[in-house]
Design brief:
By secondary structure, the protein is α/β, with parallel strands linked by helices. The chain is 40% helix and 22% strand. The protein is built from ten helices and 13 strands. The strands form four sheets. The protein has a five-stranded mixed sheet, with helices on both faces. Strands 8-12-7-11 form a four-stranded mixed sheet. A two-stranded antiparallel ribbon has the order 1-2. Strand 9, helix 7 and strand 10 form a beta-alpha-beta unit.
Length: 316
């Protein structure tokens, strides 16, 4: 029995871009002089480049005579792959250039459940009109503390959150100063008042966000109650502002939150009475990392400057 012979492996070869462009020029012109002129080089270097390519591939790509040049079968087979190589390179170069100029890319934008969905939709719409090559990936259902933390860690490029101060390395602009209101069912005694003070609330039970939520409005309200000399009695803790609104609507307790939160909850008949808290504002801010150099982020910030409102409030 004769031993089987394993055929030798073909050596892998790589074609560089210089050789690819030279090959296509000759293949399309079928004339070394015209191809050299098209490439802006002399004919002898072009002939050497084609010879080096043929040696590298181990095949003859062109039939040459003194009167004409034609493609061999191997040369004809290489034409379309060579064109595809150049198309891919050109696409890569164009993509990199557009990304550097901020014409394409993606930006991760986070927002809280209570942070003005109207602002988010306005910004997304403006991005579609002015910078359609940039994708805005939305990340909701988070509280302000979490949103700020994700921007700091780089998990988000932008966040629309309630805050009156920013940690080091973050920057931002206040979009609006929202109003705190007391949310009650429509037949609640507090609806008889034009404005409610914190002291008016001490005898009622509240629906509040869970302690671990890190909600800006919750922390503010607890602070105001402490200054008024009482601790709010909690009837029910909830995971988010939407659940809060439904619990208030069902008569579980009353709640303190911002106006946009209540305005966007369907199938409720809540009454929102302004909470009298002096001149203390509720800043809604668009925040980002100062060291984030993404061109796509710069473009979103540019569009946001025009598409979103400005509020006169300086973050600490």
């Amino acid at each position: 029995m004769s031993a089987s012979v394993t055929p030798p492996r073909r050596k892998k070869v790589a074609i560089d871009l210089h050789q690819t462009r030279a090959f296509l020029a000759v293949a399309e012109e079928l004339h070394f002089g015209r191809a050299a002129e098209r490439l802006g080089i002399a004919q002898p270097p072009l002939s050497r480049t084609i010879k080096q390519l043929e040696d590298r591939l181990g095949v003859q790509l062109f039939n040459r005579t003194t009167r004409f040049v034609s493609l061999t079968a191997a040369g004809s087979a290489l034409v379309e792959p060579a064109r595809e190589i150049l198309r891919s390179v050109e696409k890569a170069e164009r993509t990199v250039r557009l990304a550097e100029e901020g014409d394409i890319g993606s930006v991760n934008l986070g927002f809280t459940l209570s942070s003005g969905h109207a602002h988010i939709s306005r910004l997304v719409r403006a991005m579609q009109q002015q910078a359609p090559g940039i994708k805005v990936d939305l990340h909701g259902k988070m509280f302000s503390v979490e949103g700020i933390s994700r921007v700091l860690s780089g998990k988000l490029d932008l966040a629309l959150v309630y805050t009156d101060s920013l940690p080091p390395r973050l920057a931002g602009r206040v979009i609006s100063l929202d109003q705190y209101v007391v949310a009650t069912p429509k037949n609640h005694p507090l609806t008889q008042l034009d404005k409610v003070t914190v002291e008016n609330l001490k005898d009622y039970e509240f629906v509040m966000l869970a302690t671990q939520a890190g909600d800006f409005a919750r922390e503010k309200f607890i602070h105001w109650c402490s200054e008024a000399g009482f601790k709010p009695r909690v009837a029910q803790t909830v995971p988010d502002s939407i659940t809060m609104a439904y619990c208030v609507n069902a008569g579980v307790g009353i709640a303190v939150n911002t106006t946009p939160t209540l305005a966007e909850v369907p199938n409720t008949s809540l009454v929102a009475t302004p909470l009298e808290i002096g001149d203390e504002p509720t800043p809604l801010a668009l925040v980002y990392h100062e060291e984030n150099t993404s061109p796509a982020l710069r473009e979103v910030l540019r569009v946001a400057e025009e598409a979103l409102p400005h509020a006169q409030f300086e973050l600490k």
